[in-house]
Amino acid sequence: MDIIHLLPDSVANQIAAGEVIQRPASCLKELVENSLDAGARNIQVIVQDAGRTLLQVIDDGKGMSETDARMAFERHATSKIAEAADLFSLHTMGFRGEALASVAAVAQVELLTRRQEDEAGTLLEIAGSQVLRQEPAQAPVGTNFKVKNLFYNVPARRRFLKTNTTELRNIITDFYRIVLVYPQVHFLLVSDDEILFDLPAVSLKQRIENVFGKSLKKNYAGQLVEIKADTPMVGIGGFVGKPEAASKNPQQYFFVNGRFMKHPYFHKAVMTAYAGMLPPDHNPSYFIYFSMPADAIDVNIHPTKTEIKFADEQPVWQIVQATVREALGKYNLVPSLDFNREGDIDIPAPPRNMAEVSVPQVHVNPDYNPFVAHACKAAAPVRHWETLYPDTAVPQQREEPAAPLFAAGAATLSEVYAYKDKYLLCPQENGLMVVDAHRAHVCVLYDTFLRQLRNRQGLKQQVLFPEVLDLDTADACLLLDIMDDLNAVGFDVVRLGPDSFSVNAVPANIDGAGAMQVLMNILHTVREAAGTVRGEWEHTIALSLANDTAVGCGKTLAEPERKDLLERFVALDMPAFTPDGKKVFFLLGNEEMDKRFQ
Ligand code: ADP
Ligand code: MG
How many angstroms separate the first and last alpha carbons of the chain? Predict the structure, then answer.
């Protein structure tokens, strides 16, 4: 008996939906992109429960005929391309004809639409790929999609959704990526009856101001410099931040042909242009728009991916770098500029594939609890601490044996010397141990902060004048997500309004003045790590705190402090690497030392 058969459409669509519609944000992105493709000038987005119960998009685009309204939900049904060649001259956001079929497979969808030329509109209801109703109805010109109870028939998917604040943050993140490309379109975003954004049609600069300026209480657009380049290979436009406006929490966006993209290689080009102009740890904001001939980039990538491959990246790198540098020079931001400096700039080779440039992620075993032992014995060594971070990609450092030349914990600390206020030298039986003081301290503090965070026992220190934080909406959602953990580690953060917070206390061991920056850094690193699972950002928070509060270079440690630091480090079983993969110490063996004198 033959056993192979074709899957029914509803099943095939549900499988496809698993890829295209991963969460409310991806559903919303598809709907809004369709509205833009339909030429809408006004787009209203309404969500309830971060999109779990309702995602609604209302546009004033060209609408659909009665037949098209039905066809739109078929798999591979699209009005945007007709043949393969069209893929190389795309002028629309969509072209796969997959989105609506996918949405209709995993939600209850209601569509009300009318074209200008039709007297009556169409109302169509579809759920789990089954059409429940289609009839003529009164409707304004345009399209109104209601997507209710996303994943109602895929409980596993529904359970997989994160907290409402996380899902809403994802929605806002995707919303930014669209509204920053279409300043000429009026967007409204309403969440649970609260207007989060009402963005009138304006210039690009004003749109950036309207999206990000309100949180900064100062003239955001005034800190931007326009960039422009027109070459046969690529057109570049947009804005970059003045160096003095650089911050630890910048907004950085690349778009190519109207699509958001991540591009670590071109990011480097921008950063190279700012070389020597930024305070340490500060980064510029940028909003850079590329236009490329459609056949020079591969857009036929997966709809949920944001990496885009360019055919010829190295020359574009140079153009990006020179364009940004020139713009900064034109506005007298660089004292004397040598525009023809390309000669002495190291242009890195483009990565061969995207995997190479992706930022290393720290993957952590969520079940591992290094503190069980600590409960009974304060200084119980944590064995093989560094093996917690097997994926921390620092391969060149990993080549050396991570194992110390003596049994961990057996190091003697009878003499500890400071060298250049940076290293600690500690003679051992079999050699000289050289420790990076800052990194050893990072290990010690990371361990402490993580424990405090998990046991919710961070010590608070009230601040005299509570600081008020006004954030942009995406960061505000993020802060809401991690607020519990911040408070567990010693902050006292309270929400004042939709996007504003008051910081009433900071961890006891952080000096008050730097505390707000420490807090912003946490927000920034969690945002960059993009971990949406609580267990992941615990590590990010603890590490960010540790990095910011560990003794810095140039701080002289008195003898007892040196010893105390090393004792605590040894008690951790002497991790060879910091949690972010930096080498902490090495042993210069006696034999090696003797050899040098031969
Ligand atoms: P794609 O966008 O890749 O073509 P979709 O499944 O997203 O595929 O949409 C299918 C078709 O439905 C589109 O090609 C378009 O013709 C029509 N459509 C979808 N949304 C709208 C809208 N808001 N206004 C007008 N037409 C729409
Ligand atoms: Mg589409």
Answer: 82
**One-letter amino acid identity for 108?**
Q
**How far is Cα 527 from Cα 515, in angstroms, rounded to an integer?**
18
d(CA 78, CA 102): 13
At 108-164, the pLDDT tens digits run 999 999 999 999 999 999 999 999 999 999 999 999 999 999 999 988 888 878 888
Judge contact between 252 and 218, C-beta under 8 A. Answer: no
pLDDT band at 363 (very low <50, low <70, confident <90, very high): very low
Measuring from atom 14 of ligand 1, which residue has the nearest CA?
78
Top mutation candidate among 100, 118, 126, 178 for ligand 1, by most atoms within 8 Å of CB: 100
Q: pTM for the complete prediction?
A: 0.69
Mean pLDDT of the chain: 82
Q: Which residues, including other chains, have CB under 8 Å from residue 353's CB and lie 6 or more apart?
A: none
pLDDT per residue over 559-579, tens digit each? 888 889 999 998 888 888 888
Give me ligand 1 centre to Cα 70, in Å.
11
Residue nearest to atom 16 of ligand 1 (CA): 79
At residue 293, φ and ψ (nearest 5 deg) are -55, 135
Quote the ligand 2 centre to 297 CA distance (angstroms): 20
User: Which strand ranges, in their side-by-side order, compose the sheet holding 235-241?
Assistant: 224-230, 235-241, 286-291, 252-256, 259-261
Quick one: residue 167, left, alpha or beta (phi over 0 = left, psi -120 to 50 = alpha)? Answer: alpha
Q: How far is the CA of 85 from the centre of ligand 1 (A)?
A: 20
Can you spell out the DSSP letters for 35-73? HHHTT-SEEEEEEEGGGTSEEEEEE-S----HHHHHHTT
* Cα–ligand 2 centroid distance for 40 (angstroms): 14
Q: Residue 436: its pLDDT value, please?
A: 93
Ligand 1: residue of 19, 34, 91 to mutate (most ligand atoms within 8 A of CB) is 34
Which residue's C-alpha comes closest to atom 20 of ligand 1? 34
* Closest C-alpha to ligand 1, atom 1: 97
- Tell me the residues surrounding ligand 2 (ion) with CB < 5 Å: 34, 94, 99
pLDDT tens digits for range 531-561: 555 566 888 899 999 988 888 766 778 888 8
Query: What residue's CA is closest to ligand 1, atom 27?
Result: 34
Residue 161's DSSP bridge partners are none
CB atoms within 10 A of CB 447: 23
